[in-house]
Amino acid sequence: MLMQVRGLSKTFGGLHAVEDVSFDIAEGEITAIIGPNGAGKSTLFNLITGFYRPTAGSVTFKAKDITGHPAHRTAQAGVARTFQTTKLFEHSSIAENVLAGCAAGSRSTLIDAVFRTPRHRREEKASMDKTLELLEFTGILEFKDEIAANVPHEVQKRAAVALALATEPELLLLDEPAAGITEDETARFGQLIRQIVARGVTVGLVEHKMSLIMSLADSILVLDQGRRIAWGTPEEVRSDPRVIEAYLGAGSQGSTSQEDGIQERTPGQGA
Ligand SMILES: Nc1ncnc2c1ncn2[C@@H]1O[C@H](COP(=O)(O)OP(=O)(O)OP(=O)(O)O)[C@@H](O)[C@H]1O
């Protein structure tokens, strides 16, 4: 197992945002985390990427305990993430954004940079090569010199993936990658996620769009009110009465995205 999560909990005051959640992320697979609004998905993401410290439980990555490690150490260990709202340097070009991700792994010191030592020049060239390769891989090479704030939303999302890949992660966690993009763009994003896995990077994602999840995920963790209510293959999860109940419950409270999810779970759809 690439990542093992055991008994993970996080309370905010008296609220159990995540309670006693255990699951694994298997190497080379796509693991999805789903659940109604407020189920604890983002909190769980923040716990396994070191943005929150858990109240209880453990996170193991490549057989090493990384529980409570701060975000930068988790990233150094090989876990990268994107955010629900894309976080790019808005006034920099798309290429400069991805270069920043390459720099995170650079061994050059400030002295190397100031004196432009051979090591620095070598690393600079390698970073630029890597940036161009990642821009091509994510399908946005033509936007490399555009200012991040000016490019379409889909391009920004792809740039965020390129930036995360620039840190050379073994596990890439995507927080709602398909939020705010069209159905066509979502389908294309699904293809990109498959290519990321083919590249040797394991993927975890939080997502509301059931069409994407059901066609993409190898295993799905379902949360409701902070607790794990199901964990299995898409087939197992879509027919689980507790999952249907959780989604119907949320739907009856007027959550449109969950209602979409139920619609999209009808047989014959998905893969
Ligand atoms: N920093 C925080 N302080 C206090 N409560 C929080 C905090 N973050 C999350 N919560 C609460 O924890 C619960 C789980 O929230 P979380 O954002 O993890 O759910 P989610 O499944 O990601 O929801 P959504 O699908 O709406 O993004 C919610 O009740 C939320 O209000």
Automatic annotation (TrEMBL):
Keywords: ATP-binding, Nucleotide-binding, Transport
Gene3D superfamilies assigned to the protein according to its UniProt record, in alphabetical order: P-loop containing nucleotide triphosphate hydrolases
SMART domains, per the entry: AAA (SM00382)
Name this polypeptide is given: ABC transporter ATP-binding protein
Pfam families: ABC_tran (PF00005), BCA_ABC_TP_C (PF12399)
Xref: PROSITE patterns: ABC_TRANSPORTER_2
Molecular function per GO: ATP binding; ATP hydrolysis activity
ABC transporter domain residues: 3-250
InterPro entries: AAA+_ATPase, ABC_AA/LPS_Transport, ABC_transporter-like_ATP-bd, BCA_ABC_TP_C, P-loop_NTPase
Gene Ontology terms: cellular component: plasma membrane
Region (Disordered): 249-271
Origin species: Nesterenkonia salmonea
PANTHER family cross-referenced by the UniProt entry: CONSERVED COMPONENT OF ABC TRANSPORTER FOR NATURAL AMINO ACIDS, CONSERVED COMPONENT OF ABC TRANSPORTER FOR NATURAL AMINO ACIDS-RELATED
Top-level taxon of the source organism: Bacteria
SUPFAM superfamilies: P-loop containing nucleoside triphosphate hydrolases (SSF52540)
